[in-house]
Design brief:
The protein is α/β, with parallel strands linked by helices. It has six helices and 13 strands. Helices cover 28% and strands 19% of the residues. The strands form four sheets. A six-stranded mixed sheet has the order 2-1-3-7-10-13, with helices on both faces. The chain has a three-stranded antiparallel sheet with strand order 4-5-6. Strands 8-9 form a two-stranded antiparallel sheet. Helix 2 packs parallel to helix 5 and helix 3 runs parallel beside helix 4.
Length: 285
């Protein structure tokens, strides 16, 4: 009888994996409204590149949601993240991709040792703080994103896969068309931090939450993220690895991505891939 139940559980587990769905949310913003203070980049050009990469790895068109430019407001992004939480089932594969500006913002929760959260810049997010006018409400904070991801992890279980890709920088220059010796280069991000007066909180180790998913960032929090061939450098490199994303463990993929960006593209940035020990042998898809 005991053997029967073990076989039954293995059968149920295998069936759940075979029935797993691959869900993706792809966000790409290029031209920001002039009044926001953000310069134009090519984040929207990343969307078809990512969609092609997803389709080649078993994602179905109906399970890919793309938010482009004016459709990628803060409310729309949060609504789609909430939708992912509702749709996620045990064993599912979840992929979230953001291509746009990034900025550091005053940490008001006390979970960042350097005093700053990292934020994705939605289409309707402003460049600078203005008391009573704009106080950061349309910045997508890493704290907020983590809340959604923890909920998704509860839904997909330990065997489900969650990958978050940020082709943005957290510190750099918001200037477009910066002349280099070789070419005209576009940088995604802001050298000016978004400072919220009287909101800074001292770092509290107890408030730090462990991640339970794969995070791929285009560069370190203090670096610029450069575009390459009219697209995000990270998006471009991931597309080159499209055939290997479902078979190569994340740590090995991290080494390949870093080597390509620094040695082949020769860009002055260091991609960061975080993979918790419990899932470090998982693949991205």
């Amino acid at each position: 009888m005991k053997k029967f139940f073990i076989v039954l559980l293995l059968t149920i587990s295998t069936t759940m994996v075979l029935n797993a769905t691959k869900h993706a949310l792809v966000i790409g913003i290029g031209p920001y409204p002039t009044e926001t203070g953000w310069t134009a980049i090519n984040g929207d050009k990343d969307i078809p590149i990512v969609e092609k990469m997803l389709l080649s790895n078993g994602f179905l068109p109906q399970d890919i949601v793309a938010l482009e430019n004016q459709n990628a407001t803060a409310d729309a992004i949060r609504a789609e993240l909430s939708s992912l939480v509702k749709k996620a089932q045990v064993g599912d594969v979840i992929y979230i991709h953001f291509s746009g500006h990034g900025q550091r913002i005053t940490d008001i929760s006390g979970d960042e040792e350097d005093g700053f959260d990292e934020a994705w810049i939605a289409y309707d997010a402003q460049f600078a703080y203005a008391d009573g006018v704009y106080e950061g409400e349309n910045h997508i904070l890493d704290d907020q994103l983590n809340d959604y991801l923890h909920q998704i992890r509860e839904k997909v279980g330990e065997n489900g896969k969650i990958t978050v890709v940020a082709d943005a920088c957290h510190s750099g220059s918001a200037t477009r068309d910066i002349e280099s010796e070789q070419d005209t280069m576009v940088i995604r991000g802001a050298s000016d931090d978004f400072l919220i007066p009287n909101k800074f909180r001292l770092f509290n180790q107890d408030r730090v939450q462990n991640i339970e998913w794969i995070v791929i960032s285009a560069c370190k929090s203090y670096q610029c993220n450069y575009e390459y061939n009219g697209a995000g450098s990270l998006t471009y490199v991931l597309s080159l690895q499209a055939d290997n994303l479902a078979t190569t463990p994340a740590p090995q993929m991290a080494r390949q991505i870093k080597a390509t960006i620094t040695n082949v593209l020769q860009l002055p940035q260091t991609p960061v891939i975080e993979t918790p020990t419990s899932i470090n042998q998982q693949t991205i898809f």
